[in-house]
Design goal:
The complex is a heterodimer of chains A (324) and B (272). Chain A has 324 residues and is an alpha/beta fold. Helices cover 43% and strands 18% of the residues of chain A. Chain B is built from ten helices and seven strands. Chain B is globular. The chains are: A alpha/beta (324), B alpha/beta (272). Chain A binds chain B through residues 28, 49-50, 52, 54-55, 57, 59-60, 62-73, 75, 90-91, 93-95, 98-100, and chain B through 60, 106-108, 114-119, 122-123, 125-134, 136-137, 155-156, 159-160, 162-163.
């Protein structure tokens, strides 16, 4: 059993970062008055000389990180996903993306499951924003165990890197370990009839949906697309060719997120009926995480319905091709 | 550090100004006003004060320079070419397709450019990162950041201004090219920065004020900066936008406009 399994993704991040910090003196960590929430506090306690407290100044934090990176440091800058994306977007663009500085932005409290804090604190645009930046890698781990692997990969991969983590505890997907590879989808479950491509907390829900569909004789493939950028076009194409119906699921706006990116890949490659589960061009409200997911159509049941929908479209297409 | 006399440095600054005019004129666009106002500051740094090696632009122990007001790129390119970072012929490729000399500085393309800039207000923070790295690595290089006065209207400057003294960054020198003009007009009319020196002092910086076109004052101030032991230092250099070209001096129209052929001839004659 993995030591990280019972942790939130942010706790796993904090511990993994501290472990990495012990192995590599180039790693420095920056935070903007949220180290007790992002869990960079563990690193701060272990390596106070390499922890840079920026106060409430995210723009300054990102540009400082870039300056450190030009001198050979591997800076990890952390704050909540709302601030890590929109508050300092120009600094990320100008000081990180354009000059390709080796800065790692690791955000926590992503998505609507931040819950009661309400819409100001619910990052639902961050993936779209970071994916829009050339030179960036963008990753959303599915659980705490994958988070550890992603953080290691971020440290080992030269160049700008964004990782989105959550606030609440995430059900474990990778009980028996995880082999994260940037740019590669992980086939968590094989299937013939349809494919769910999911990220973050929706990966576990996709597995639940696949379990439930199996009972009605539907064989559903599940892909963890944690590496959104670069994205695994081969896996998307294979899903289209081999299962012919696709559903994406993400805790993010539909616009510019996983759904958009998969739609683009499908349009350019093998086409298949696609349905996308995500936030529909709206801001959400305060509430309990599970209630918010339900209110916004982000449950395993919603995935099941969407799968049935794309399979029906696949059948109709098949029939019209035969008769036409 | 070099053996150039103050007179030599004045001559180099004049040469950089001529390059600026020729480059922008050839490019057909660019920012002459702020490049000319910064020419003496850049000269003092690259030809007298900074420790650097044009043959080895990535030398880990070099002093760092960030042109935070990235639109003054031509004057930096002129200095880098004169130092020998790249061939002089590059200067006339400014802003042209395929050039290594972009409209605003690009650290990935130009040897000797320590950091890209163009979106204002970010260079001081980047300089803080470099200064922190020096401290972590026990290196004695110094980081210099050149900002515009209009640029100091950006909020991030004051985030950085708060950070540096709180972290006792005594290896950081900020220089403000205070020419009093910005794109839309006089800074005092657009968004008055005064009391400027008091602002920096209240943020716990050591402040020096110089005439930004007096080479002796500039060199002395920059050297004095290295002796401040417990805080960062900012040099507020009073300058004239468009300095050295009569019709450009203190004229807002020359913030971002290229001189035509006859204007170029007049300018070069005045700078001869």
């Amino acid at each position: 059993m993995n030591d990280y399994a019972e942790l939130t993704t942010r706790e796993a991040f904090g511990k993994a970062l501290t472990e990495l910090g012990g192995q590599d003196g180039h790693i420095v960590v920056l935070d903007a008055d949220l180290s007790r929430s992002t869990m960079t506090k563990y690193f701060a306690q272990a390596f106070p000389e390499r922890f840079i407290q920026c106060g409430l100044a995210e723009q300054n934090m990102i540009s400082i990180a870039a300056g450190l990176a030009t001198c050979g440091k591997i800076p990890f800058a952390s704050t909540f996903a709302v601030f890590a994306s929109s508050r300092c977007f120009d600094q990320v663009r100008m000081c990180v993306a354009q000059p390709r500085t080796n800065v790692k932005v690791v955000s926590t409290h992503g998505g609507i499951t931040v819950g009661e804090d309400g819409s100001s604190h619910q990052a639902i645009e961050d993936i779209s924003l970071y994916c829009s930046l050339p030179n960036f890698s963008v990753v959303v781990p599915a659980d705490s165990i994958e988070t550890v692997e992603v953080i290691k990969a971020a440290a080992a991969t030269e160049g700008p890197f964004y990782v989105r983590l959550g606030r609440s505890k995430t059900p474990v997907v990778y009980r028996s370990g995880c082999n994260f590879k940037l740019g590669k989808a992980d086939v968590l479950r094989e299937g013939r009839d349809a494919t769910v491509i999911a990220i973050g907390i929706m990966v576990y829900k996709a597995m639940e949906a696949a379990d439930s569909l199996e009972k009605s004789g539907i064989s559903c493939r599940v892909l963890n697309m944690s590496s959104i950028k670069p994205i695994d076009r081969q896996a998307i194409d294979a899903a289209a060719v081999e299962t012919g119906a696709i559903v994406t699921a993400e805790e993010h706006l539909l616009h510019g997120g996983l759904g958009s990116i998969v739609a683009q890949a499908l349009a350019a490659g093998t086409q298949a009926p696609l349905a996308s589960i995500g936030i529909k061009d709206t801001y959400c409200k305060s509430g309990k995480p599970e209630e918010l997911l339900e209110a916004n159509g982000l449950t395993a049941g919603d995935i099941v319905d969407a799968i049935k929908g794309v399979m029906a479209r696949k059948r109709r297409q098949y029939n019209s091709n035969r008769t036409g | 550090m070099t053996d150039y006399t103050i007179e030599d440095l004045k001559g180099i600054a004049r040469k950089l100004r001529r390059h600026v005019i020729t480059m922008i004129s050839t490019a057909g666009s660019g920012h002459p006003g702020g490049s000319l106002s910064a020419a003496d500051i850049v000269t003092a740094l690259y030809f007298h004060v900074m420790r650097h090696d044009p043959a080895n632009p990535h030398w880990p122990d070099r002093d760092r320079f960030i042109l935070s007001k990235g639109h003054a790129a031509p004057v930096l390119y002129a200095a880098l070419a004169e130092c020998g970072y790249f061939p002089m012929e590059w200067l006339t490729t400014l802003r042209k397709t395929g050039t290594c000399l972009q409209g605003h500085t690009d650290s990935r393309l130009t040897p000797g450019v320590d950091m890209s800039a163009g979106s204002l207000g970010q260079g001081l923070s980047v300089g803080i990162g470099m200064a922190l790295a020096a401290r972590l690595d026990n290196k004695d290089y110094r980081t210099y950041v050149l900002m515009g006065d209009g640029e100091c209207q950006e909020g991030q400057i004051w985030e950085a201004a708060m950070f540096a003294p709180n972290n006792k960054l005594n290896n950081l020198t900020a220089i403000v090219d205070y020419n009093g003009l910005q794109l839309d007009g006089f800074t005092r009319q657009i968004m008055d920065l005064e009391p400027f020196v008091e602002k920096w002092r209240s943020f716990k910086w050591e402040v020096l004020q110089v005439d930004g076109h007096d080479m002796k004052q500039l060199v002395e101030a920059l050297q004095k900066a290295a002796q401040v032991k417990d805080k960062p230092i900012v040099i507020v250099a009073k300058t004239i936008k468009g300095k050295g070209v009569s019709f450009m001096e203190n004229n807002v129209d020359w913030h971002g406009k290229a001189p035509d052929k006859s204007q170029t001839e007049i300018a070069l004659r005045e700078l001869a």
